[in-house]
Amino acid sequence: MNDIKVAVLGSEAVGKSALIVRFLTKRFIGEYASASECIYRKRLSIDGRQQNLELYDPCSQPSEGKSTLSEQIHWADGFVVVYDISDRSSFLTAKAILHLIRELNFGATKRDADAVVFLVGNKQDLCHVREVSREEGQQLAGETHCQFYELSAAEHCQEVALMFSKMVRNASQHSKAKERRRRPSGSKSMAKLINNVFGKRRKSV
Ligand SMILES: Nc1nc2c(ncn2[C@@H]2O[C@H](COP(=O)(O)OP(=O)(O)OP(=O)(O)O)[C@@H](O)[C@H]2O)c(=O)[nH]1
């Protein structure tokens, strides 16, 4: 069975937990007491196949032993980068995160990356106090080659579920592709192994 790892990233209070909880429980819970990062696990059936989903929800408060953003990026198969449409600074943070994902993880494989990085403008119900237009979100998604959604964890149950389901499906395909790239053919990897062993021995003499 495949394990699919998805990191939900973004600045403080943009609604990362709200989106995850909406997807997992179909409910919107106003306040979350989150003093530490956490991984939610769920078993899902996607296209008739059982998948173990791990959803990483970082806590924005600094805490001891907390993983760094680059560790989180290396861990994940897919990313949901969230900003709050009523908070411009959260949009700038999302932009910085998207660029870091490109640099650290997916720079070389753009085609895969398009499918497994989503930019989500959350709190669409607050559009009367909007600070980031939909067009700006779309433009950033275009520039950084990711898919764009505007959602409200507070009001959209189905749309949030569809977004996560699509991410899980895409990340599942991407993790399989990553696995294939990691595993060279048998003869090649044996040759590499022999080379490494003898290479090391020669060096130590
Ligand atoms: N109006 C509105 N409020 C939302 C929405 N999603 C989340 N909130 C509120 O935004 C606040 C922050 O939500 P969280 O889900 O805790 O945000 P977070 O990004 O996980 O925050 P940290 O854990 O601090 O990183 C809470 O008061 C939520 O009720 C939304 O779609 N609309």
TrEMBL record:
Molecular function per GO: G protein activity; GTP binding
Keyword GTP-binding appears in the UniProt entry: yes
Catalytic activity: GTP + H2O = GDP + phosphate + H(+)
InterPro entries assigned to the protein according to its UniProt record, in alphabetical order: P-loop_NTPase, Ras-related_GTPase, Small_GTPase
Residue numbers spanned by region Disordered: 171-193
Source taxon at top rank: Eukaryota
EC number: 3.6.5.2
Bias (Basic residues): 175-185
GTP-binding recorded as keyword: yes
Pfam families associated with the record: Ras
Keyword vocabulary terms for this entry: GTP-binding, Hydrolase, Nucleotide-binding
Top EC class for this record: hydrolase
Family statement: Belongs to the small GTPase superfamily. Ras family.
Name of the protein this chain belongs to: small monomeric GTPase
Species: Alosa alosa
